[in-house]
Each structure stands twice: as structure tokens, then as C-alpha cells.
Amino acid sequence: MTGGSGRVALVTGASSGIGAASARLLAARGMRVVVNYLRGNTAAEEVVADIEAAGGQAMAVQADVREAAAIESMVQQVQAAWGHIDVLVHNALIPYAIKSFQDMTWEELGGKLNDEMYAAFAVTKAVLPAMTEQGWGRIIYMGTGLSRRPRENMIALGTSKAALEQFARYLAQELGPRGITVNVVAPGPVEGTRIANEFDDDHKRRQVAATPMGRLARPADVAQAVAFYASEDNAFMTGTTAAVIGGMAMY
């Protein structure tokens, strides 16, 4: 795969899990990486240190992606150091309730929908002008297999990510003529993430048994799909969703 040619990638929610794995891989491919975080300052700095130890370039920037002013400040900080952002990997996980529809309030469901879509809207708005100006950009949103395959008590996450996936398709249609691709990476259960840790060992064994590849995804598996969508190699795929689920479902 071609290198990053010094392009700048912003990875939201990059202090751990899929975000950290994506940040490390993009840096290894030659991109300068902005490791965004909300509260995990120490963890984010560790990701930066790992990248720098491997010969890459990275910076940690705190910002709540649910707040427009925080996003604007982050983008300005990146522009001052490295210029504009070429690649957006919007991975930050917005908190959500894990419960049945029967037990859920509108504040829980509607709040998750609002926060999910506002964060994607605001962070995309912030990076789009520079991408448009140069006629090149890569936007990758983190989705979930739950958008298409419902699972007990995951209605808030699955519904909000389904909205995000359709939002990405509309953007892909609009931004294609500007040389900007927009895609979604949709993992199934991923080891070591908050979602995976909500379920007991028996549940995890059933998930593995239902997966032809014989294991759950690892953050590095998801990062590989992110890195392809972010690369120069991806010149013609837009409006697509990569299901990183080991064959648990096949579309």
C-alpha cells in the first residue's frame, strides 16, 4: 500500500481500542496523526510516544467532539502545527444506554441520536473546507454491525449508527465531485472494547461460534480497513460500508 506522503490524519477517540490501533497504523503508513481524546490524557500520550518511538509523527489534542467550539480549537491547533487535515477518522464513541426499548426513555434514545449525529456533523464541517480547497480528502466513520443486525438491549447504539451510515452515503454523493471519499467501517464484536465487556463469557463463546473465522475481531483488524479507506489507494470506493465481522453476517 502506498505511504501517507506526510498527509495529516485526525483520529477522534484515539486514546484506546480501535482509535489507538488506527492512529498507530496510519502513522506507520507515513501520515502525521492527531490523537484526539476526551479524558484519557495519559493513554493518548502513550499512543503518541509509541508512534514517535517507531519513527512517526503524532500529537495528542483534547477535545469533546460534541462541542463545536472544542472542535474548532482542535482544528486550529492542528493547522498551526501541520497545516490542514487531509483524513478524518471519526471513531469517538458517544455514551449510550444499554437497555431494552421497554425500559428506555426518549432522553436516552433521542439524546444518543442527537449526540451521535451532531458530533459527526460538527467534526466533518470543521475539516471539509480544506479538503474541498485541495480537491482531496478521506472521511471514515466508525459504524457497527448492530446497524443491520439488531441485538438485545443495543437499540440506542444500533439506531444512531444506522443514521450515521446513511448520513455518510449522502455525503459521499455530494462530496465525490470534490475528490473526497466518505466510507464507514462497521465492526462486529471487538475484543477489549466497552461493548464486548458488557457481555459474559458464555455470550462471547456464542459469538465466536457464530463467526466462521473462529474468533472476535481485534482492534488491529478494524484499523486495517480504516487504513485502506484513508489511503491514496482508495481512489474509487465511496459510500460503502466495510463489515469487519469475520463472516458473522454476510451481505
Automatic annotation (TrEMBL):
Pfam family, one: adh_short_C2
Keywords on record: Oxidoreductase
GO molecular function: oxidoreductase activity
InterPro entries assigned: NAD(P)-bd_dom_sf, SDR, SDR_fam
Classification via PANTHER family: 3-OXOACYL-(ACYL-CARRIER-PROTEIN) REDUCTASE (PTHR42879), 3-OXOACYL-[ACYL-CARRIER-PROTEIN] REDUCTASE FABG (PTHR42879:SF2)
Family: Belongs to the short-chain dehydrogenases/reductases (SDR) family.
Protein name (Swiss-Prot/TrEMBL): SDR family oxidoreductase
